[in-house]
Amino acid sequence: MTTRPLEGKTALVTGGSRGVGAGIVARLAADGAAVAFTYARSAERADDVATAVVAAGGTALPIRADSMHEQDIEAAVARTVERFGSLDILVNNAAVATVAPITDLTMDEIDAMLTVNVRSAIVAIRQSLAHMGAGGRIINIGSVNADRTPFSGQSVYALTKGALASLTRGLARELASRRISINNIQPGPIDTDANPSDGPTAQAMLGVMATDRYGTAAEVGAFVSYVAGPDADYITGSSLDIDGGFTA
Ligand code: NDP
Fold it and tell me: Is the CB of 116 under 6 A from ligand 1?
């Protein structure tokens, strides 16, 4: 029998109840990791994700934890370690995006993007580092919008994803001596509730891409699993695109 690449590893994925996060949870679990994941509102869908993982022979632990609240994230990390005994892989995936010109965004909408997309990742990283040993992996889910923002209304969202890229580079320097890697995976258009491939903006997105299709959550999950795995030990501090040529 072939050993699965993440056998014996433990993971925490933020925002795993739907979309890209659910694809990451499914793939990490299929590759052998025990996977905890957070959600804020979608309890039923979180249960569905966990049930599917267990039905496939894996281990999943859904945790309600709102990334707006530091205490929720701290509790999610603690619960993961309490249940699995360790934390090897952290994936910061939860994010919110409100698309509007900067003068139309409310400060609450701006604060939510800064808090969920950036501050919560910092909180999760700080908490996780207390438990992570050599071989640990931190993976941020950024966006190609950090590097290319072809449509108006995305300035603050793009800012948050640019912040993750910078955080990743800086932390690679701090964490290498502990043999922990950190990378920033930047998806292009992926078919999810947030960006449906048959939605009103899909044709415009396809118009600036090299390929003629959206990506899938499963494809991002496979990429994350590779970066989380033993073959990716030499990759750190990188922003890695999976974008159908959006930035080509
Ligand atoms: P979705 O909106 O489809 O799903 C978001 C997920 O994050 C849900 O599981 C949601 O859980 C969770 N979430 C949202 N807010 C919170 C919160 N406050 N606390 C905890 N969990 C929360 O997004 P996508 O799957 O499309 O995006 C996932 C990641 O991929 C994000 O980082 C996004 O920026 C990035 N990305 C996506 C692209 C795309 O085209 N789809 C392109 C580039 C990057 P719940 O429902 O329970 O609130």
Answer: yes
Q: If you measure from the C-alpha of residue 119 to the centroid of ligand 1, how many angstroms do you get, rounded to a whole number?
A: 15
Full-model pTM: 0.99
Q: How far is Cα 148 from Cα 7, in angstroms, rounded to an integer?
A: 37
- Residue 1 has a pLDDT of 59
Contact 17 CB / ligand 1 (< 6 Å): yes
Active site residue 157: yes
d(CA 2, ligand 1 centre) in Å: 33
Q: Which residue has the tokens 């050993």?
A: 3
Domains and CATH numbers, the chain: 10-242 (3.40.50.720)
Q: How far apart, in Å, are the Cα atoms of 205 and each of 16, 141, 145, 169, 239?
A: 25, 19, 12, 28, 21
**pLDDT attached to residue 3:** 87
Atom of ligand 1 lying closest to residue 193 CA: 3
Tens-digit pLDDT profile for residues 105-159: 999 999 999 999 999 999 999 999 999 999 999 999 999 999 999 999 999 999 9
Q: What residues contact 185, with CB distance under 8 A and at least 6 apart?
A: 139, 140, 141, 142, 220, 223, 224, 227, 239, 240, 242
32 lines ligand 1 (CB under 6 A): no
Terminal-to-terminal C-alpha distance of the chain: 40
pLDDT confidence of 200, banded at 50, 70, 90? very high
Closest ligand 1 atom number to CA of residue 161: 34
